[in-house]
């Protein structure tokens, strides 16, 4: 039995435990390959969407339209982030997006979702995609609390859950290719 240090309370606990007995924080997952694969898919998807955006738009005549033709919308970035979150779950089919709050001033997106945990119970989870689509942390990752407090806590925005849910079949079809 080896001991690890809890990322939240800094107390030691056994690697056999699922959660820290002191504060209840989840033990960091051993396998991050799903997360890394998801990040790679996210960047690939944004490049693909950028390519389609440039082919679907008319020939730009000003520098503003050139820039806008190559930008990926915040909702598209958020949909790719949701796909990463969903695919990183133990049971991806149980994933349900509850809220995706697009913060008006910063472009950050604050997610609330439900998914089955390792015991089959439905848990509520949170994740945040940083300003302008940079970075994605869920509640089990180091640094999540600081980013959530900076980008989401007490902030006002627009719930984009419905638009993201409509985009998910398209996003997932790109990922499956």
Would you kindly provide a written description of the structure presented here, covering whatever features stand out?
This protein folds into 2 domains: 1-28; 31-176, no CATH class. The chain has 177 residues and is an alpha+beta fold. The longest helix is centred in the N-terminal third of the chain and has 24 residues, at 33-56. It is 40% helix and 20% strand.
Sketch the topology as an H/E string, one letter per element.
Answer: EEHHHEEEEHEH
Shape: globular
Average pLDDT level: 78
Per DSSP, what share of the residues sits in E-state strands of 2 or more residues? Answer: 15-25%
Helix count equals 5
Portion in helices: 25-40%
Multimeric state: single chain
The low-confidence parts are 54-69
**Beta strand count:** 7
Structural class: alpha+beta
How would you characterize the largest beta sheet?
5 strands, antiparallel
**Spatial order of the strands forming the largest sheet:** 6-5-4-3-7
Number of domains: 2
Radius of gyration: 18 Å
Quickly list its features.
globular; two-stranded antiparallel sheet; five-stranded antiparallel β-sheet; 5 helices
Topology:
Elements (H helix, E strand, L loop, with lengths): L2 E3 L6 E3 L18 H24 L6 H8 L3 H14 L8 E8 L5 E8 L5 E8 L6 E3 L5 H8 L5 E3 L1 H16 L1
Antiparallel strand pairs: 1-2, 3-4, 3-7, 4-5, 5-6
